[in-house]
UniProtKB/TrEMBL annotation:
4-aspartylphosphate: residues bearing it: D53
Lineage: Bacteria, Pseudomonadati, Pseudomonadota, Gammaproteobacteria, Alteromonadales
Molecular function, one GO term: transcription cis-regulatory region binding
PROSITE patterns in alphabetical order: HTH_LYTTR, RESPONSE_REGULATORY
InterPro entries named among the record's database cross-references: CheY-like_superfamily, LytTR_DNA-bd_dom, Sig_transdc_resp-reg_receiver, WalR-like
GO terms under cellular component: cytosol; protein-DNA complex
Classification via Pfam families: LytTR (PF04397), Response_reg (PF00072)
Segments forming domain HTH LytTR-type: 131-233
GO biological process, alphabetically ordered: regulation of DNA-templated transcription
SUPFAM superfamilies: CheY-like
Official protein name in the record: Response regulator transcription factor
Response regulatory domain boundaries: 2-116
Alphabetical UniProt keywords: DNA-binding, Phosphoprotein, Two-component regulatory system
Amino acid sequence: MKVLIVDDEPLARARLQRLLAHYPNYNHAAQVNNGNEALQQVKQQAPDIVFLDVDMPAMSGLEVATQLNKLSVPPAIIFVTAHPEHALEALQLSAAGYLVKPVTEQNLAKAIDQLGRLTRAHLQKQRPAAISYQLAGVTRSVALEDVCYVIAEEKYTRLVFTHGEALLDQSLKQLEQDYPTQLLRIHRKIVINLSRLIALKKAEDGSHVVLLEGCSCLLPVSRRAYKTVKEHL
């Protein structure tokens, strides 16, 4: 899951990121130090979760949360503050959690557990069905319906879509976790868009391949994935 840490204190940001490193699904974290940057980052990167400091100059975390909740697809918000008296306001803003500084391993574990009750399916419904990538320093996105397949190559992950290709910083495993009902792994190195699956064929050498709508190439299917692929046809 994409995580954004918002805090004007560098040490607090570093501490939280260090603690999050123990959670593989939550350690892809970006950091900003003020509310305006937070709003911009959310619009550009669409994080799933925002760890949001309440007490910041210029724009408080509560003000940031109010703006985020106006988005058509707001992220889950976990407030972080040294002042527990803000808890009621946080709850009124539909916060997914609340952490009191200094954040401890135990308290973070509780917040992560609570957040886990917001199932991945629920988060997926909130998130736009698109995959983001960087091109010349600019964040772009491809609608999931336009994606053909994703393939892991030596040093990167290549996204193939209707009108082109792009390199991703996400692994195949991350993409599978983010879009469990739309993407299917057919091979150790290949994930396909299920909605584009047309046929499963036997090759001359006895192996199996799939044909995808809008894709001219035939993609190999591993023996392990064969049964699962067949069930989706």
